[in-house]
Amino acid sequence: MNAPVISFEDGDACLDWLALTEALAAGHLMPKAEIADTFLYRDPDTLLNRAAWIDGLGLAVKSATVFPGNRSQGDAAINGGVMLFSDRDGTLQAIIDFHLVTKWKTAGDSLLAARRLARPDSKDILIVGAGTQGHGLHAAYRAAFPDARFSIWNRTGEKTEKMAAKIPDLKVVTDLADAVAQADIITSATMSTEPLIKGAWLRPGQHIDLIGAYRPDMREVDDNAITRARVFVDSLDTTVGHIGEIKIPIETGVITPDDIVADYYAPERFKRQSDEEITLFKNGGGAHLDLMTSRYILDQWEA
């Protein structure tokens, strides 16, 4: 049997945010994933392969091509696909659109954390960054917090206005400090290498969701925010020594690895303790999450 090719449009139409978080939670109750990344370079272009194997769930290889020059032609700079293989016999079961997996994996990862860490009565949600991920984050958080009010802040006004035009209930804000102080949940997806969100702006009871930083030199919050919050990550293996948000404060002695409360493989500790504490989650991604998401996509597509 030929493996199906699942397009963005076909897959996107049959998925559910809350069901995805349940699938991710179930995936972390299985044996811990083996993961590996490989890179090939031809300046300025990159091929990234991320692979994962979870005993009982299967194997996935997510390949991404990064060609920055495409932007000058009006084309997407990042393209790719995910190959999903059977755990039983290694046969190819599906090829899934890269952007479909990335959208649902990224926002679903953050939503699972928010369902465990954010106050259930959260009413004001601030999205920091009006890039591609911002749209998925709005849809994901809307599913779990249907009565919430949403606002958006971005460095440049043009992208903010475009996003707000597509999402009628989205309020554009220009004062980041004030918007952070007013929000119950702050979800940030920027490419910043310098902290945008200051710990001095935070107040008790908030949940901070950090998505954008993925390199060792990237950060979205300052040291004060890190020390004021109880810190959680999706995976200790893919965040602690790899992403600046966690790596830099550890190297400078601001925190130690023991200050990270838990990752998803310790669900008994991955929870809010009081209404007053500040929780902070670092979304680091990882091929194991691509595998879990791809398996969920294929199951829903077949159903």
Which value, in Å, is the CA radius of gyration? 19 Å
How would you write the strand order of the largest sheet? 9-8-7-10-11-14-12-13
CATH topology of the largest domain: Rossmann fold
Q: What does the average pLDDT come to?
A: 95
Q: Into how many domains do the coordinates divide?
A: 2
The tally of helices reads 10
What percent strand?
A: 25-35%
Second-tier CATH architecture of the largest domain:
3-Layer(aba) Sandwich
> What summary fits the major beta sheet?
8 strands, parallel
3D architecture notes:
The relative contact order is 0.17. The protein is an alpha/beta fold and 303 residues long. The two termini are 17 Å apart. The chain folds into 2 domains: 5-101 and 288-302, ornithine cyclodeaminase, domain 1 (2-Layer Sandwich), CATH 3.30.1780; 103-285, Rossmann fold (3-Layer(aba) Sandwich), CATH 3.40.50. 33% of the residues lie in helices and 25% in strands.
